[in-house]
Amino acid sequence: MGHGDGRGRIVSAADAVDTGTRILHVDMDAFYAAVEVLDDPSLRGLPLIIGTRDGRSVVSTASYEARKYGVRAAMPVSHALRLCPTARVVPPHFHRYHEVSRQVMAIFESFTPLVEPLSVDEAFLDVQGVRRLWGSPARIAELIRARVLKEVGITCSVGVAATKHVAKMASTIAKPDGMLVVAEKDTLDFLAPRSVRALWGVGPKASEALEARGIRTVQDVRSSSRESLERAVGGALAARLTELALGIDPRTINTERVEKSVGHEETFEEDILDRPFLRAELLRLADRVASRLRRAEWETSTVAIKIRFDDFRTVNRSQTLSEPTAVGQRIGEAAQALFEQIDRRDPVRLVGVRAENLRPAGGGGLGLWDDDEGWRKVEGAVDEAMARFGSATISRARHIGRGDGRGAAQHPKDHGQE
């Protein structure tokens, strides 16, 4: 795979053979940073960190100039600045990112109605049915790249392939500002030398288990026995990896997007300064949100929090997840990370957690949250216990003895679906 800073980048020639392809994966290049440069051209060419200088803040993204120093998303900003002391730290402007995202998605939809947004800055497109109108998949990819640059002012990278899995891998390798075409007949050769970590569904734990057994590349997966793979990652993931290693990925474009949200918030009787307690409350609310998602058979693509301080100023933050989830632990971790990015340390009057951009559970096909399998089992058991004995009888151990939260009023505002 390519590196996050553009090293190892591979792109196709303009006349690349795209026989047998139909799927495009379009990914904006360092999207948040690109939008900031778009709005403030004086930032162009500078190493940028999107985040805040607060000691607890993490990097939302970084420009390619900063990535060359080892700066990565989710890294503490303090550590990022040690790696790149000259970096400019720019606070995120999420409303602006969503605005630009809508412009980009509108361009995609002008080429084909079969668009599956994955997040604010990437999407899959099926262009098989519009070839007569626009040309071959590679030609369409070039047209999209040109229009995004001309009409929006930012660059994107595109992978062109026969399947979603290979198209996404190709766009990553082509970054930044490139296109990589993998003809259907070249799929196996393209996959063979790639790291096993590039396969969809392989998280950190799974990759460590595979590499400990000498399974480091896609070719190694093909050469390994089914029993060896199952011992490393379990039966379900072993079967999935075997198919992906052979270029088999039957997933189609999913255009259904459930524009609803589920949220819970709580107002405290007394303003709270205790940040560990507030973090625990966010996790508790995330558990409630996740439980409702599972009951409705939905997953969330975006986690948002709402924090109201003692002066009634309200701060909202949101984060788009790399894969949809209905796991309370995952939603809670995202909510806590968003909370740590808020600079203010004043007493808090209200906290809220919301799941947005919902979609039917399982609609995304292969999941990337393989590391959440244990949490899914635990939370599934909790769901069964709550159904049998009532919700009041089940709680995380960390919440026991806290009552409803240090004088918290038991009026969580249940937003339900919107």
What report would you give on this structure?
There is one protein chain. The chain is an alpha+beta fold and 418 residues long. It folds into four domains: 101 residues, 2-Layer Sandwich (Alpha-Beta Plaits), CATH 3.30.70; 62 residues, MutS, DNA mismatch repair protein, domain I (3-Layer(aba) Sandwich); 54 residues, Orthogonal Bundle (DNA polymerase, domain 1); 153 residues, DNA polymerase, Y-family, little finger domain (Dna Ligase, domain 1). It is built from 15 helices and 13 strands. Strands 5-6-1-7-8 form a five-stranded mixed sheet. A hairpin with a 2-residue loop joins strand 5 and strand 6. The two termini are 40 Å apart. The relative contact order is 0.11.
Task: Tell me, rounded to a whole number, the average pLDDT.
Answer: 85
In which order are the strands of the major sheet placed?
5-6-1-7-8
CATH topology of the largest domain: Dna Ligase, domain 1
Proportion in helices: 25-40%
State the secondary-structure class.
alpha+beta
The strand count comes to 13
Overall CATH architecture of the largest domain = 2-Layer Sandwich
Principal-axes shape call:
globular
Percent of residues in β-strands: 15-25%
Please work out how many helical segments DSSP would assign.
15
The gyration radius over C-alpha positions equals 22 Å
Order of helices and strands: EHEEHHEHEEHHEHEHHHHHEHEEHEHE
Low-confidence stretches: 365-370, 386-394, 397-418
Main sheet properties: 5 strands, mixed
Number of domains: 4
Distance between the termini: 40 Å
CATH top level of the largest domain? Alpha Beta
